[in-house]
Amino acid sequence: MADRIYLDWNATTPLRPQARAAILAAMDLVGNPSSVHAEGRKARRLTEEAREVIARGLGTVARRVVFTSGGTEANVLALSPGLRAPAGPVERLLVSAVEHASVLAGGRFAPSAVQTIPVDSSGVVDLGRLEALLAGGPPALVSVMAANNETGVLQPVSKVAEMVRQAGGVLHVDSIQAFGKVPLDIKQMGAGLVTISAHKIGGPKGVGALVLGAGVEEPIPVLRGGGQERGRRAGTENVAGIAGFGAAAGAALASREVDLTRITALRDRLEAGLRQTAGVTVFSSEAARLPNTTLFTAPGLKAETAVIGFDLEGIAVSSGSACSSGKVQPSHVLEAMGASSAAAQGAVRLSLGWSTTEAEVDRCVQAWRKLSLTLLKGGDETVLERF
Description:
The chain is α/β, with parallel strands linked by helices. It has 13 helices and 17 strands. β8, α7 and β9 form a beta-alpha-beta unit. It is globular, with a radius of gyration of 21 Å.
């Protein structure tokens, strides 16, 4: 397995050495961070140091960071009816059609209070439709992600924020894929609520955060009980996970600019190689994207078979489809973009990371050339027989 290549970084990332060291050190502490004795204070210090690092990474202050069990919980906590907007309490939720499932589910809003903002063929939110939706009712909480997990498309968050501000609403930005990869500042974004997750930047699974913008009131807690996280999220803090989150964030932010340049070049090299096969389409290639994400298809390609084929070649990739109860469904992102059913069923996602090399990218291209000879000629059985 040592020679396998991992190109599914948008799903989850390897644990950074800095995060591993921080987690192991935290696991040796016995104290509860809510305790006032020396052991408790040591545990508290670790959580607050991590909070400071994450806050600086988003241009805010530590007290605005609320730790959660992950990105999904952070999104649910953010999507809270009754949150006070400049024009009054929000009574409805507007979400872009390409949001993550944890946002599309509507958080704690009733389904009847949720409306969808369409996107264009590149997956960029339709600002004209957003303007119309904002004008068509009471104050709204608007949720538009910073970067899409499938296509990598970067949304025009600042423009969205200005429209939401003028309409007296509040903006939530799911920044789980963007944090640590591209520059983010909660003030410059104009966001009232931002969500992030540790395992997308080299931290551990099972820890995330909701970051509150200036002037935004506390959301109604999802978990009630003790007074942890300033009363915003009950339950003893995951000290080891939070320490790992802080260490991963520090490492990601320190190398972000270098990684951005290097990984962009690798992505472009990868896409140039893929396009040498006739008929290959890279989705959203004309839009601003994350530096590490490529979603592609080709006529006749079946994504689930391609993923198996790459796996047999020693390369981990993913499909652009959502899998539920073992049943592959077409990507809701590509459907929202108006892609054909065949294109959506054949979308394969390759996502790179800080340790990806040119040699790995070249090997992936070589594997694709080999696989395409079978996969694009109706020979799926040949690949499946090897599985």
